[in-house]
Structures are given as structure tokens and as C-alpha cells.
Amino acid sequence: MARCFLSGVEFELKDGRVLNRRAARDLLDALRDRVAGLQRIVMQTAPMDETVEEKFWPGSPRFQAAPKRHRLVCKAVADAMAAGFPEIELFVSWGQYVTQSKKTVVQAIREHPTLGEAAKRVDDDALLYAGKKGRRVLQLLDSARALSANTRQAICMGSTTLLRPLNAEAIVELICKAAAEFGNPDSVGLTEVQLSEIRTLPRVVQMATKPEQSPQGGTGVP
Hints:
Elements: E1 2-3, E2 10-11, H1 21-45, E3 48-50, E4 68-70, H2 75-82, H3 94-110, H4 124-141, H5 149-162, H6 168-180, H7 192-198, H8 202-209
Antiparallel strand pairs: 1-2, 3-4
Helix pairs in contact: 3-4, 4-5, 4-6, 6-8
């Protein structure tokens, strides 16, 4: 009688199984090669290239984010690369990618914690437009990317959806005013934690410390 190394169960020797070391090692080598191959594909094709090389310092009047361009490959090359990884759909058509991206944006807005049921009553096209406007809002409000990713997403998704009838400049002004004057965060689709983070931005700090103007044009301080 023999005993199972893992379970301790006894069995006849003829029923025993022993590891095929050579086959297992060959498979490990093949898997390492596949992992290395997939990593090369990701490194080559996943990054997005900047289409504008000229940059300006954040905060400069001329500062703008460089547009990004996806790295595309032809169908023949995609099919050849994908053949080594049949478990997944390694490449999708550009049309599929755009459709999936739109669905992701819409779903993120509808599931946003500060919007509640409001976003569910808005059609997909309006939400997509709000998300696109959100990128402009972030460019104006936080061009230096000082805010956390969570707060940036809340502004991009929440604020622009709630305030979608307004243009980007007006939305930025309302967010800054709500932060500087310790207003209601719900009015701009944010939480108090997110609004407190926005209060640290130079634009908001300047607004909060700027003296009020009297009707005669002087300051409100006697």
C-alpha cells in the first residue's frame, strides 16, 4: 500500500500517480515565454503617445494638456500577435473600443455616489457630453494635477453631470466659490472631503483671501 503525499489516503501502488517533471518544466518554460511575449506586446502597444510635443509650465496662461493618440496596428499584425493568446480577445476593433469606452464612462457616472438617482434620468448622450466637458473643467481647475485621482474623477463625472447646462468656465467658478465660501458640497456634486481638498488649490486660496469690494470700489475693510 502507498499513502497519498497530500491527502494521506492509502491506495494500491498500481493506482498511484507520479509527477511528470519533464512535461511540467516544459510547460513552465513555455508559460514564461508567453508571459514575456505578452509583456512585450503591452509595452509596445498599450501606451498612448502625445501628439503635441510643445509643453508649458502648469499654471501658465498657455498651458494645455497634450492630446493623446492610441497606438494602432493593422488586422494582420493583430491576428498574428493574438494567435499566441487564445484565452483572451487581445485586440479589438477601433469601433468596439470606442463603444466600450462610452459604456464605461456612462456606467461610472450612473454609479457615482454623489449623484444618486439624478444621473439615471439623463440619457447616455448627455452623460457622455458631460464627461467630455469634465476634462475641460479639470484642465481649467487643476492643470497641475494636484488633486487626488478620486477627487478629479468626482469633478469630471459628478460636477459636470449635475451642472451640465453650464459651460466649463461657469462650472469651475461655482466649484471654486463653493470651496472658498465653505458652501454646500452637494450643490456642485462633491463631498465635503473632496471640497476641502479643492480649497488647497492656489486659485481657491486666492479667492478665499481676496478682500470684498465695497460699492464705492474700495475694500470692505474700514
